[in-house]
Please model this.
Amino acid sequence: MASLKDVIDGQLRQLLGSSGTWFIDVGDRYFSIWIESTNLDLNRLATWGKTFWQQWQRGNFLLFVAEPHQPFPYWWKSWSVASALPQSTQIGETVASDRFIICGLGSLGQFCIQSLHRFAGEHLALEICAIDRHANIEWEIPQLTELLSEPVIIGDCRQEAILKTARIDRCRTLLAVTSDEATNIATAIVARRLNPNVHLVVRSSRDNLNALLKKKLGNFLALNPTELPAPAFALAALEENILAVFTIEGQQFRVLQHTITADSPLVGTPVHHWQRRHQRLISIRTCHSQSSIFQPTRPHRLFNHWPPDLCFQAGDRPIWIERVQRVTPSPMSEPHSLQQLLQWVRQFPEQVQRFWQWIHRDRSRELIFNGLWIGSSLWLLTAILLRYNVPKLTWQKAFAAGFILLLGGFGDVFGGLDNDPVPPWLLVVCILVAIVSLLFIVGILGLLAEKLLQARFDFLKKRPPLPAADHIIVVGLDRIGQQVVQLLRAFRQPLVLLVDNPEQTQLFEDLPMLLGNIPEKLPQAHLETAKSVVLTTADEMLNLEAALIARQATEQRESPIGLVIGIHNPTLTNDLQDLLPRARPLCAYALAAEAFAGAAFGETMLGLFQIDQQTVLIADYTVAAGDTLEGKLIGEVAYGYAVIPIFYNRHQQFLGGETSHQFLPSDTLQLTAGDRLTVLATIDGLRRIEQGKMAPRRLWRLWVGHPRIAEAALEIGNLITKITGLPLLRSRTFIQQLPAAITLELYEPQAFRLGQQLQALAPVRLFPLADREKG
Model:
């Protein structure tokens, strides 16, 4: 082989002369040449490489051209034999079998069956058993019965005999998703008694009861299907850059998108500069292609599908997640009671001043306050006069008699004192006290009556007027509609509510509302200037009719009105997109079912939203011993399973007293049993985690020269271990042999980060030896 290297040296010397330097690396099944130059005839070099390959014909021949002192090539060519290099170790395609029981075959139950099969994919066999009380089931999804492992069991899922027939003892997860929450909870209690290990996923909106049951039953998760899809409806209506807003451990996150214009300062900026401690790029829709050795082989994925050395260009649309603010303050120790007392004493003058300001802000408050202190003074004066001028009268009776006088009870007091010598002047004083108190009582009662009437009129006053432009029209105020309105109010969006049910007029009384026939009232909601219309009624055909009316009424607009259409049949999605371009048909139960399916496999679903009409789930994992996450770097989880880690909590304190949790955690953290990890994932990503099916890595050749300073050698070894997960002992052995080369299995972002960080410490050359497997 040495003679072959000499031949290559001679040919390159004739071909390049003094315009470049080269480095030849020979492996068992590959031969690579690294050329450093800024001015080469690349076509001539490629022709020479092809000629050499025809002579070599053994494995892979790789030709790279790089600028001097750069870790990555700017031009490359490769010629290879299909099986030249050993492929990455793959997860065995063993078929596992799990049994799931679904109680309730309404809309949610049927979509759960479909989502479970989507979750399982081709390599996970499922046994799905369904229970329903009624035999005449109205199937909303065609051929759904073919996904069941056995005929539907007809009966009450709360009965032990029915659950035993469904083989609850062999069940991994029971999903109680009937429309009756009491039935769902009762079923969960019975199922726990019959199978202490079964995972329970229940449809329920009773938060307090759910929390109590989770503590009592264990392995229990309750989800509310009306809350899960509401953010998708609300954010679709905004038609702005915000795709999602959610909170994890008191930290608010936002998912945003932005289209880069030609005059944007981002044009030409490397994408990896976007990755910061408070924000993380999660997806990018690019309108240009860029040749890169880091180009992933799966660009169809939603997450982590772009080369890390990509540069932004006009027309690109990055999507990123960022931390916004702390929603709750960090926990602090309760102040000592003595400190609280001293603090109250110091603030007492300020509190008194605030009280007087509050009193003087309203004339009625002044009158009531004056009445109270005058009445109290008269009460005390009367009690003292009676006590010292009426023989044998106790203080208790004196105060009681004074209070009765304040209430106008003059006869009640002196009718019982016939035999008591009461001085005439005292009798006159008591009469005056009774008269004054009656005047104050009548005045205060009058003021209270006036306040009550005014509040009543305020309650019955007209709603605010309809906004003139840029408002969102929400049609229907069922449970999802109410959630959508609350979310849109949080975004400070002007709203118009449109309902046909008089009972719903009591909701959101501070918002403009139209009541009546929806198709007739919709044009009155200023459609021509509205931003979008959200249709959330339970009547699918009514939603479609209203959408057609809205689109027809706004045909003359430069940009069509945004339409978010609630549907129950997901097969209508494609038809509606053809009928109403740019409309967003959303099936609430189909969205919620994906969260239920993920929860059925043991994950905790914290929420969901949509990106490019793909459902993104917020899944919370607790790493268990021996599962598919234990021992892996967070970077490996992100790139191998195509998910976005957003929160990491270590079950033990880091060395050095560092915090045990991180938002948007570093790729270099390693997961251990007991750690908690929250990720953004599609159903495909959750399935990959469940099956342990990581995307294959690529083989990379790393050459490191002598460190620029002697002390850097140890840091080089630590960086290699930190970024790649290579055992520290092997890294230390490698750096003792520098200059040297090593072959590593890495994902593209890991390789890019490794080359970037090492080049500051030593000369580095990093290049791929083969493409990853497809599929």
